[in-house]
Design brief:
Layout (H helix, E strand, L loop, with lengths): L1 H6 L8 H13 L9 H16 L14 H13 L2 H15 L4 H9 L1 H9 L8 H15 L1 H13 L10 H16 L10 H13 L7 H14 L9 H11 L3 H4 L9 H21 L3 H18 L8 H13 L4 H18 L7 H11 L7 H17 L6 H5 L4 H7 L4 H34 L5 H17 L4 H4 L4 H9 L5 H17 L1 H15 L3 H14 L7 H12 L7 H5 L1 H15 E3 L6 E3 L20 H10 L3 H4 L2 H25 L4 H10 L4
Antiparallel strand pairs: 1-2
Helix pairs in contact: 2-3, 2-4, 3-8, 5-8, 5-9, 6-7, 10-12, 11-12, 13-15, 15-16, 16-18, 18-20, 19-20, 20-23, 22-23, 23-24, 24-27, 26-27, 27-28, 27-30, 28-29, 29-32, 30-32, 30-35, 32-35, 32-36
Length: 689
């Protein structure tokens, strides 16, 4: 019947009334008492839920747009779900099906961990009674909230004040009602003043320490977890943290505590005690799922407070290797450990180097595709590898050795490829010489294979690695990746059709031309020979395409680089370069427009891309402090011609040199090939030279 409803909702229309009468009478009236059993109840609830939620039975906002079949089905539903029926379903769900059973209470007493895992994990909502009743409640409450909000609020108002600890029945009813209020938090947003309720009642209920009040303490903290992202004033949070800290000392309760959103500045006062209690709990719990949950909360805390966690993590750092060893058969727990390590490394910064004896073998195992666990651990393992490199103060032999895993990862060509390229770039920024000496040949071979069959985005990622190699090592870089350069050169003269690829091609060739002119000359000769063309013809074609496709380049850094690179061909007596002089000057003036800013006080222009010294950026509390890699990139920028050479000065010097080479008359003839408007703009930028 459920499959029929799912696959053919309109054919089911004639059965809606009878199906609802059947299911509701057995599950929500005395008719079912003594004869229904759990699997039958679950199937009936699923039937009701699927009819309530079915999109085929929901009219459009504009009724005229709805089909006749939809309107017919909606009418049947409306006639069935009257106020008395909805009220009875709601009351029965809360006061009957939401109640903790004797079996559940016994299990909680004897095995609190097992109880929590069963309750929060359990089977799918389709097959297990408690999650099934909660999902049905959420769906019916959402669909008929105008009718049901007053019903639920009346139930809440009837439970004001603390319950008698001797009255187990009253405690269980309150637990069930609070459960309903948590599940319906978004629907109740405008109807409940949660802040007042927290201050006037819920907080005091958290402070009732009697053992029989444990279900309420547990439910209240869960309830706050449901509401905190919906409606909860930030100035109440310190009071809440105090309450959580007290609850953390109750082992039967703590496994139910959620990972709350928090404001770092408010939380710091409680950081040491909270972290210590959570760590103690992590050691004491035995079930894999519970350890994962506690690790998740610890990870959230570490992530939020970042470097301020450093004084408190010693105990965790010592414990994680033992937990990793114990979890050999539990890959999901190992994933949780990896996530914790990611946040730990970010929080420890350069001090994470002290973790390497444990950290690096973990990365090695997680990213080794020949090891079966990689199926579960690879994604988090790559993330950990990356943050380890980003925060590393130097390249150690062990860190270098892990890169042996990379060639097999590149062959996978999976969704993890992006992180692989980030890792390669991180090695380049960390210690390019040692890294490239060890792996450049292998990497170049992998890239050649990858480029045969890869998406445009993947192609750009490969090219960006080559570009970064040329940035950090302009003399050796072109030789190390020489096998890739002819296809890049060919792509430029053939007019590569994808702008993002063309932009990267020109970025790479700009680096070679500007910073390694000798190698560029050899490359042009090689291409002329390979294509059977004259050297000057190849050079002319390249400059022409470069000028023509400048609009492909959107990044200001690359635009300035192109201007510098093309200007570096001057001064020259070469007829081809003189023939393209007009285009080169056009690009140079475009570059000036990109980078020059006018000083309003003096009226003079300056190159806004120039950097003269390294400054530690001031970070706000909400911003993460710069990683070691951020600092390395900044130091690299201080050596980059794009950030050290004034484009204005460079143009002036190149034009002056060309003038001296040709003489005044020859130079004027060359300048006359440039558009007069461009010349006027150039002269304005060069005022004062």
């Amino acid at each position: 019947l459920l499959d029929f409803l799912d696959q053919h909702p309109f054919s089911f229309t004639s059965l809606i009334q009878r199906s609802l009468e059947f299911a509701v009478s057995y599950v929500f009236t005395e008719a079912g008492e003594g004869i229904v059993f759990e699997r039958f109840i679950v199937q009936c609830m699923n039937l009701i839920k699927m009819i309530v939620k079915n999109y085929a039975y929901k009219p459009s906002k504009n009724i005229e747009d709805s089909s006749r079949e939809t309107l017919e089905a909606h009418k049947i539903k409306t006639l069935f779900f009257t106020y008395p029926t909805l009220t009875e379903i709601c009351r029965r769900l809360v006061t009957h099906y939401f109640l903790l059973t004797k079996e559940e209470l016994t299990m909680w007493e004897e095995d609190p961990e097992g109880f929590t895992v069963e309750e929060t994990g359990g089977d799918s909502w389709k097959y297990s009674l408690r999650p099934c009743t909660e999902v049905l409640f959420i769906d019916i409450f959402h669909e008929y909230n105008q009718t049901l909000i007053p019903v639920l609020l009346e139930m809440v108002h009837s439970l004001q004040g603390p319950s008698n600890v001797e009255d187990t029945s009253a405690i269980l009813i309150k637990d069930a009602v609070y459960n309903a209020v948590g599940l319906a938090a978004y629907e109740l947003f405008d109807s409940v003043d949660f802040d007042q309720w927290f201050k006037n009642q819920l907080l005091s209920e958290l402070q009732v320490s009697h053992d029989r009040y444990k279900p309420i303490r547990r439910r209240v903290i869960w309830l706050i977890g449901q509401w905190i992202s919906v409606k909860f004033k930030s100035d109440l949070r310190p009071v809440l943290y105090e309450a959580i800290r007290n609850l953390l000392q109750d082992q039967d309760l703590v496994v139910s505590i959620n990972d709350f959103e928090f404001r770092t500045d408010q939380f710091l006062l409680y950081l040491e005690s909270m972290f210590t209690l959570l760590f103690q709990l992590l050691q004491e719990v035995t079930q894999c799922d519970t350890k994962m949950h506690v690790l998740h909360v610890l990870s959230c805390v570490i992530e939020r407070v970042n470097t301020q966690i450093q004084p408190y993590v010693g105990c965790l750092v010592q414990y994680l290797p033992l937990l990793w060893k114990q979890s050999e058969e539990h890959n999901m727990l190992r994933c949780a450990i990896l996530t914790t390590l990611i946040h730990l490394v970010q929080g420890l910064g350069t001090d994470s180097k002290n973790l390497y004896p444990f950290l690096l073998p973990v990365i090695q195992l997680s990213t080794d595709v020949s090891q079966p666990p990689h199926v579960y651990l690879l994604e988090d393992g790559l993330e950990l590898w990356l943050v380890t490199l980003e925060n590393s103060p130097c390249l150690t032999p062990e860190l270098l050795r892990i890169f042996q895993n990379m060639s097999a990862l590149l062959e996978l060509s999976s969704e993890n490829l992006k992180n692989c390229f980030k890792i390669i770039n991180a090695y380049i920024f960390l210690e390019s010489s040692e890294f490239l000496q060890a792996y450049a040949a292998e990497l170049c071979q992998s890239f050649c294979e990858l480029l045969k069959d890869i998406t445009t985005e993947g192609q750009v990622q490969v090219l960006k690695v080559v570009e970064n190699v040329l940035k950090v090592n302009p003399m050796l870089g072109p030789q190390m990746f020489q096998p890739l350069l002819p296809s890049i050169f060919r792509g430029i003269i053939d007019g590569e059709r994808y702008p993002v690829v063309m932009s990267t091609y020109l970025g790479i060739m700009g680096r070679v031309l500007l910073q390694n002119a000798r190698f560029f000359s050899l490359l042009v000769s090689q291409m002329a020979c390979a294509l059977g063309q004259e050297l000057d013809q190849i050079l002319g074609n390249m400059i022409e395409m470069w000028v023509d496709r400048m609009d492909s380049i959107t990044q200001p850094e690359r635009r300035k680089l192109s201007a510098l690179a093309l200007l570096s061909l001057l001064p020259s007596l070469n007829s081809v370069i003189q023939d393209k002089f007009c285009g080169i000057i056009n690009i140079a003036v475009e570059g000036l427009h990109d980078v020059m800013t006018e000083d309003p006080e003096t009226g003079t222009y300056k190159d806004c891309m120039l950097m003269c010294h390294f400054e530690e950026p001031n970070t706000t509390e909400e911003e993460e402090p710069p990683t070691e890699q951020d600092k390395r990139k900044k130091m690299l920028a201080l050596k980059d011609p794009v950030h050290t050479v004034s484009l204005q000065q460079f143009i002036y010097e190149k034009l002056k040199a060309q003038q001296e080479l040709l003489g005044e008359q020859g130079f004027q003839a060359l300048m006359e090939t440039v558009d007069t408007e461009i010349v006027a703009q150039l002269q304005e930028f060069l005022q004062g030279f």
